[in-house]
Amino acid sequence: MPRIGLTGDVMLGRLVDEHQRYRAVDAVWGNTVTTLRELDGLVINLECCLSDRGSPWRRTRRVFHFRADPEWAIPALRRAGVDACALANNHVLDFEETALRDTLSHLDEAGIERSGAGTDLEEALAPASFAADGVDVAVVSLTDNTHEYAAGQTSPGTAWIEIDRGDPETRARVEDALSRVQELDSDLVIASLHWGPNMVEEPPESFRTFARWLVDMGVDAVHGHSAHLFHGIEVYESAPIIYDAGDFVDDYAVNPRRRNDRSFLFVLSADSAGTPKTLRLVPTEIHDCSVHLAGEDAAAWSRSRMRSLSSEFGTEFERADEALIVNLGK
User: Which positions fall inside the Capsule synthesis protein CapA domain (predicted)?
Assistant: First the structure.
């Protein structure tokens, strides 16, 4: 039974980048590295570009610019066993087209699959694909953040959409991306969505409608991120909808009530045909610009918070050691 890990935002720039220049390449993963490497597949939202070139984006106002040195970042991703990076987000063009092209090249050279950004819209919509213990997995990456980063027919950028299933352009882009997945004949399809604003605590109804529509269109799991806070889990037609996976590693200031330093490693288990069976939530926390398995108090807080947020969806959890488990019903 393959196990595919899904994480929230992985931001390797700024202070994380500075720390990693003076410590072991896998230090950014803290004591999670063994857990990550034991997975059969790992999908992250890479919330930065990987380059030592480029100039900060100034065409429109941008407060933050995230960039990591590929000399350590690529080995770190490989050390964790990252199979695919979702790139449709609001930071992949922070250092303009030069750094985006570097990011694409570095990932390709390392054999790490990617989706959601490219040298043009066609490439940005192309799925990432990899094998996990005999199951063929496809990842489609889309975002509604930062329209100015959107790829065009001949210009680089992200796979940008409106989160509105009724929008003709959105429907066309989603159908285009999913038709490419069908051509791959993948067993398990994941939609990785960087959607919505920062620090919101629950998804709007429009996101719920959109996520369910994706499942109706053939997606097996929805992997949401962007809020920096984890949201509740819904199970729709036996497909898990992670509305927001929160943050996995970064250097962000911590809100003492919302605790954006706490989240989970989400581990999706499937059968040999790629049908999702369970979703395991392993509590994590960020400190010292690294991700760690959560301590007892942090884990208890995150479990309680997740149960509360998921209750409106009727989602029930079992407890297994420090983790929560959702049975998906198929």
Answer: 3-252
Tokens 């919509």 locate to 125
296: CB partners within 8 A, 6+ apart: none
The span from the CA of 266 to the CA of 287, in Å, is 19
* Residues of the chain predicted below pLDDT 50: none
Tokens representing 92? 């992949």
Residue pair 82/112 in contact (Cβ under 8 Å)? The answer is: yes
Closest by CA to 125, choosing from 95, 90, 152, is: 152
150 has which bridge partners? 158
Please check whether residue 326 is in contact with residue 240, taking contact to mean a CB–CB distance below 8 angstroms. yes
Q: For residue 36, report the phi and psi dihedrals to the nearest 5 degrees.
A: -65, -45
Query: Residue ranges per domain, the chain?
Result: 3-327
What size, in residues, is the chain?
Answer: 330
- Is the pTM for the entire model greater than 0.70? yes
CATH number for 3-327 (one of 3.30.1380.10, 3.60.21.10, 3.30.565.10, 3.20.20.480): it is: 3.60.21.10
Rounded to whole angstroms, how far apart are CA atoms 161 and 116? 11
